[in-house]
Amino acid sequence: MNNFAEKLLIWFDRHGRHDLPWQQERTPYRVWVSEIMLQQTQVATVIPYFNRFMARFPDVRTLAAAAEDDVFSHWSGLGYYARARNLHRAAKIIVEQHDGVVPTTIEQISALPGIGPSTAGAILAQACNQRHPILDGNVKRVLSRYYGFTTWPGEKHTETQLWNRADELTPDKRVADYTQAIMDLGATLCTRRNPRCGDCPVENDCAAAATGQVHVIPATKPKRGLPTKDATFMMVQNSSGQVLLVKRPPTGIWGGLWTLPEVPPNENPAQWSHRVLGVALNESRTLPPFRHTFSHFHLNIKPIYSISTQRGHVMDDGAYSWYNLAETSKLGLPTPVKRLLQQLDNKETS
Ligand code: SF4
Fold it and tell me: Which residues line ligand 1 (CB under 6 A)?
């Protein structure tokens, strides 16, 4: 047996959890239900739910025959109801395709709804003592730290490496205990915040502990690039030099602020301006586009400058107003609009 497994099992014998309800009478059905309940929920919360669930649905056939509402009512409070729905669907499949017996090959059990590779391995290791690695969130954290992997564990290459290491470390003997032990280590000592390395059986070999990186491993998921949106702003000045502004509705982006009229996507700016703003554009030109970044998206702004020979009918609409440039400094303006009006004031539009 490898060093890691050996140390872990010695620790497990002394400090691990041995009296969990699903550790008594370890049938594939009971272990399966417990594993599904434990996917997003802590052990202490799961125990009373597990006991109630087993009292009502003691076997696969009872679960398969139950009404969905009945299953949900025994799940109520655990959250993530897709788990209950999948459990129920899987029970029906087991009755229809496996004669009511939970399958015990990794291929067949993995094919059931809601059972991924790690859950399948955990069920078969614990209920049947079959040798399969597991890699749930806790184990990813433990192994990332133990091996000093600094990349995000959900990243494809890192995940493959973690599966390989998890496989190497899984012993041939006592695999049920080992599986429980590595889950316990992640849940009780190698916790996300404030891990208790001083009590950890593998501290001497742990790369993160040796290099002081316990608090930065595992790496968090890299932020995805922000989405981008495009906006065309009309900078229309009348013959008196006034600029046309529009007050945004109170909610949404720039709620209640004054901005330049924005041409809806797929509209021709001149036609839209004529139809909606009642202005006839002269000498239009596109100014250099620029980007404004919000917390959740980038806005690519294309400003179009134009002079209007008409005042337009928009004065009748409370949302639109012509303003002298000097007055605009008293208005609530978003930064990019302020910047564009500044350009107008500096006559940078010619
Ligand atoms: S030494 Fe600390 S970081 Fe390393 S496996 Fe143990 S608890 Fe986790």
Answer: 142, 145-146, 189-190, 195, 197, 200, 202-203, 206, 208-209, 214
Give this prediction's pTM. Answer: 0.66
The structure tokens listed for 126 are: 């614990």
Element (H, E) at 308: strand 298-308
What is the whole-number distance in angstroms between the Cα of residue 13 and the centre of ligand 1? 18
Q: Residue 102 and residue 211: Cα distance in Å, rounded?
A: 45
Q: Please work out, in degrees rounded to the nearest 5, the angle formed at the alpha carbon of residue 160 by the alpha carbons of 13 and 117.
A: 60
For residue range 196-220, list pLDDT tens digits in order.
Answer: 999 999 999 999 999 999 999 999 8
Ligand 1 atom nearest residue 141's Cα? 8
Which CATH superfamily hosts domain 3-211?
Hypothetical protein; domain 2 (1.10.340.30)
What is the Cα–Cα distance from 270 to 24, expressed in whole angstroms?
Answer: 76
CA distance 215 to 206: 13
Residue 60 amino acid letter: V
Domain locations in the chain? Answer: 3-211, 228-345
Secondary structure (3-state) at 298: strand
Atom of ligand 1 nearest to the CA of 196: 7
- Cite the active site residues: 35
Question: What's the 121 CA to ligand 1 centre distance in angstroms?
Answer: 23
Q: Which of 113, 112, 53 is nearest to 86 (CA)?
A: 113
**228-345 belongs to which CATH class?**
alpha beta
